[in-house]
Amino acid sequence: MKRLLLFTFIGIVACTTDSELLSHSQSQPKNQVMLDKTTQKRSASLYKCKDDKIIRVVRITESSKNTKKVKTDEINLTFEGVTEKLNATLYQTGKFYTSIHWQWLETTENNSLRSSVGNILAEQCIEQ
């Protein structure tokens, strides 16, 4: 008889504790998260280079709905199965993108990919 009362008491305490915790967690307001209103678009280009080498360039264009500014200062470049994110840097006669491993130069005449130490990986690349 004492065991029955003990188990009943434990069951009642356990059930009320769970429901109190549940109602307490539901009553707390959740923190509102500010959403980033920046949209991101991507466009891919395929380049065929000398010696039948293929380079794929994905341009990432971000535009903010608040400021209406569009920035395209990075690309994802894939060469021989390796993808690397390259950032735009200033250059005199074209667009120049660099990372710790690669340098991608886009000019009106010729596009080329070099290693960070200057070795030519692909040259005479033409957009398909």
From TrEMBL:
<dbReference type="InterPro" id="IPR012097">
    <property type="entry name" value="OapB"/>
</dbReference>
<protein>
    <recommendedName>
        <fullName>Membrane-bound lysozyme inhibitor of c-type lysozyme MliC</fullName>
    </recommendedName>
</protein>
